[in-house]
Amino acid sequence: MADNSRFDHDLVLAHKFPETTFTYTERDAAVYALGVGACGRNAIDSDELKYVYHENGQQFVQVLPTFAAIFSLGSLTNGSMDLPGLQYDPRLLLHGQQYIQIYKPFPSSASLINKVSLAGLHDKGKAAILELETKSYEKQSGELLCMNRSTIYLRGAGGFSNSSHPYSYSNYPVNQAAAPKIPKSQPFAVFEDCTQPSQALLYRLSGDYNPLHSDPMIAEVAGFSRPILHGLCSLGFAVRAVIKCICRGDANIIKTISGRFLLHVYPGETLITEMWLEGLRVIYQAKVKERNRAVLSGFVDLRHMTPSL
Ligand SMILES: CCCCCCCCCCCCC/C=C/C(=O)SCCNC(=O)CCNC(=O)[C@H](O)C(C)(C)COP(=O)(O)OP(=O)(O)OC[C@H]1O[C@@H](n2cnc3c(N)ncnc32)[C@H](O)[C@@H]1OP(=O)(O)O
Question: Boundaries of each Peroxisomal multifunctional enzyme type 2-like N-terminal domain copy (predicted)?
Fold first, then answer.
């Protein structure tokens, strides 16, 4: 548990995050797409090649909707993992959940302004949960492109509540965080995809250089037998499965993405994504085939259904 004398929830809540700028190019979008497995099984798959290559030039490559999560990464830490009032061991940090709202398709390159705020802070006893919200605006037009809410699970940092009620603060509607109930029925679609042993080494080039994903010694301190995959990389695999099987390749119909990381994934493991349709909501669950364990679950909300479904 955290040293209560150094964990001050009022101080954490009062923190004002500085505005940051994030610029990406077509190359960043393509490296990201490869990092989440696009074209990993088939280099000429027309549903996926468009995220990596375009015959008329790189400025025409499309951008995967989960790339949104990359916009906020640098702005959350802004070069430092410290937050006044927050006491935790960064080696025990895990990504708990990601919630993304997309307002318009992303250009192949852009300069963005990120505005970060604290959306939640919870004492779970054995852990503290921190929720950070980032709104990303296109610098040139001032238009809001997307919103990310990242839930960070800080193992060993709980137990900071001053009263008998565990401390819990959040500033957004409950239904946005709720984990979906996985239906008992047969899934509408199932998609199997192998991550590569080098997957995390490739994915980290998109901006998450946490050594938990590359350094065997750090992974061991964190309680894993070897480096684990970034949660957002697994999310990228699962949402690619939804784009392929439900959106019929048209990622622009995705409005909202939500995912909860249930268990770590080791690079090289096979992900099986099961999908169920409930109106315009796709409920999904990803399992690791080798261990037959659910590792990720969530939902994807669509703007409209694909005509062929
Ligand atoms: C300037 C700011 C600095 C500080 C902030 C830094 C920001 C850093 C930004 C960068 C973030 C990205 C870093 C990326 C890291 C990774 O990618 S790590 C890899 C991906 N993640 C994982 O592999 C985690 C997989 N999940 C698990 O291992 C487990 O689910 C868990 C998270 C360890 C929790 O398991 P357990 O301890 O057994 O929890 P429970 O006992 O079941 O539940 C306790 C309560 O916690 C709630 N909860 C459980 N899991 C989650 C979750 N994934 N997300 C959110 N909340 C969770 C659960 O509901 C319980 O609450 P109550 O129901 O209220 O009791």
Answer: 22-156
